[in-house]
Amino acid sequence: MNRYIIKTPKLVHWLFPKRVWVFSRKKPTVYLTFDDGPIPEVTPWVLQQLKQHNAQATFFCIGDNVAKHPEIATQILNEGHSIGNHTFHHKNGWKTSFEEYLKEFELFNSELKKSLSDEVFEDNKTNQKSNILFRPPYGKMTSSQAKAILKKGCKIIMWHVLSGDYDKNISETECLENVLKNIEKGSIIVFHDSLKAEKNLKFVLPKVLEYIQEKGWSSQAIN
Ligand SMILES: [Zn+2]
Fold this sequence. Notes:
Elements: H1 10-15, E1 29-35, H2 43-52, E2 57-61, H3 63-68, H4 70-78, E3 82-85, H5 98-115, H6 118-123, H7 126-132, E4 133-134, H8 143-151, E5 155-156, E6 161-162, H9 172-180, E7 188-192, H10 198-215, E8 218-219
Parallel strand pairs: 1-2, 1-7, 1-8, 2-3, 4-5, 6-7
Helix pairs in contact: 5-8, 9-10
């Protein structure tokens, strides 16, 4: 029995209509997302898999990791993917004051600008992208935090399918089932380019990418 909800129920979409849970079901497109990177142990492998399968994705990075690995952040953008803001220190909004949360949000944006060369920054319009996409760590933020971030012109990107890749209590095949049983056109799927998720991710991601290709769908970056 899973301790978390794999597929976000419609009720939640209805309760938080200003947060993005899923995209149009009419287009044959899915949206893979990778949270908590970039790190050298996992993110370059993810990028290689995406390239092999002609897929684009969105990386919700931790600012602190961007600061440590600016060359990987650069690679993500140079390969046509998007980067979103996931706070600087992976803060739980429910346990963080309003001011501190907003500071974390801004700190991420300034770190991204600082970590990339001007050329990459401009070429990829990352200024626009990093300000546009935000995902709250743990999916937890207060309504006043959300309101302030929306007011900055940001899109708050939640998810439709949680792979559970970070969960040490599930097997690789269970993790794969979480995704394949729930993925649909328009789905936003959460993976993690983190050490915790590495074992499940390395099994699941190539198979999910093959499944997407077999279905004739495409995987696009959110922007
Ligand atoms: Zn996270």
